[in-house]
Amino acid sequence: MTTPAASRPTRTDAQRNRAHIIAVAEEGFADLGVEVSMDAIAKRAGVGAGTLYRHFPSREALVAAVMEARSPDLERERVAIEDGESDSRVALERWLEAVSAFMRAYDGLPDPLRSALREQGSPLAPTCRDVIATTDRFLAAAQRDGHARKGIRGRDLYLGTLAVVWAAGTESADGSVEQGLREMLRSGWALSGEGAAPAS
């Protein structure tokens, strides 16, 4: 028997439910990290597990949707850097700082981001590829201007930044770990000397 149209959820209702779940998941991730259970997210959102899984068949799909919702913030950072910074070395440093902030938005986020690079079908893979592509552009400009070593790829800097964020988030890390590791990463890609800007 066909369900009367009036009793079926409309596309607007479905979109509203999806947006609500994403907003609640973002709060849950902020409070408890990305390992919070899907059942806990459903309970916070006031929806059944079936509704949650209909929109997001896996935790990774939900994480991807939350991170996609945060992507405009990273895009604004990119535009601000490109519009306001003429020094390609400083621009790359600022971009990597923005990527670092993006990666540490929630406890436990580095793990699914790392997994997404190995799994081409991962819902998070497109976000990772976009960030890497932008990193490549900033890096290419710094290499062209003699501020960054040749042979380094945007993917390398992305993984290095991810490793720094992961290490800084471990229980044994103190407040100085991230800064020290970021300086080590910078020393790996930055060139100094004639034609290059001094390290900040």
UniProtKB/TrEMBL annotation:
<keyword id="KW-0238">DNA-binding</keyword>
<dbReference type="InterPro" id="IPR050109">
    <property type="entry name" value="HTH-type_TetR-like_transc_reg"/>
</dbReference>
<protein>
    <submittedName>
        <fullName>TetR/AcrR family transcriptional regulator</fullName>
    </submittedName>
</protein>
<feature type="DNA-binding region" description="H-T-H motif">
    <location>
        <begin position="37"/>
        <end position="56"/>
    </location>
</feature>
<keyword id="KW-0805">Transcription regulation</keyword>
<dbReference type="InterPro" id="IPR049445">
    <property type="entry name" value="TetR_SbtR-like_C"/>
</dbReference>
<dbReference type="Pfam" id="PF21597">
    <property type="entry name" value="TetR_C_43"/>
</dbReference>
<dbReference type="InterPro" id="IPR001647">
    <property type="entry name" value="HTH_TetR"/>
</dbReference>
<keyword id="KW-0804">Transcription</keyword>
<feature type="domain" description="HTH tetR-type">
    <location>
        <begin position="15"/>
        <end position="74"/>
    </location>
</feature>
<dbReference type="Pfam" id="PF00440">
    <property type="entry name" value="TetR_N"/>
</dbReference>
<dbReference type="InterPro" id="IPR009057">
    <property type="entry name" value="Homeodomain-like_sf"/>
</dbReference>
